Every structure is written in C-alpha cells, then in structure tokens.
Amino acid sequence: MATVKRRAELAQIALDAYLHAEGANRLWRGGVPACDIVDLMTDLLLLAKQRGYDPCSVVTKVERHLQAETEEQC
C-alpha cells in the first residue's frame, strides 16, 4: 500500500491532469487553490452518481477513511 505522502503525490498528478483536460490556465500561488480540488471532487461525485453510487455515501466513506489515516475528524 502506498504511503500517505505517495498518495498525495498521486492526487496532485490527478489534479494536474484534470486541470489540463479542463483547459484551465490558472495561476497558482503558494499551492493549489482549494476551489480546484473542490471542482475535481465534485466531478468525481457526479461520476459516482452516473455509475449508480450515492454521492453522499461516498463522501461519508471518504470521511471515515480520512479519519482512519490522519486521525482528523471533519
């Protein structure tokens, strides 16, 4: 299983690919703007819905995974 650091690196690659495919030419200062991450997450939830999954259930599961991996609570 990949480390948290490696998975964050993979997430950055996915975000970069998403922004490239979207044609976004955004200036980043001090890191990735939160809205880009929200846009990608929203579109992933739309994809989940198209594939027959309940987006709210996906979010709940993600929150549990985040808590287990980082001991942070949303």
What would you report as the Rg, rounded to the nearest angstrom? 14 Å
How much of the sequence lies in strands comes to under 5%
**Whole-number average pLDDT?**
87
Percentage of helical residues?
Answer: over 70%
Q: What coarse outline follows from CA principal-axis ratios?
A: globular
Cα end-to-end separation: 24 Å
Strand segment tally: 0
For the largest beta-sheet, the strand count, sense and barrel status come to: none
Unreliable sequence segments: none
The string of secondary-structure elements, in order, is HHH
Number of domains: 1
Total count of helical runs of at least 4 residues: 3
Structural class: mainly alpha
Kindly list the characteristics that best describe this protein.
74 residues, mainly alpha, 0% strand
Overview of the molecule:
By secondary structure, the chain is mainly α. It has one domain. Helix content is 70%, strand content 0%. It contains three helices and no strands. Helix 2 crosses helix 3. It is globular. The model has no long low-confidence stretch (mean pLDDT 87).
Describe the structure concisely for a colleague:
This protein has three helices and no strands.
SSE topology:
Elements lengths: L3 H19 L11 H17 L4 H16 L4
Helix pairs in contact: 2-3
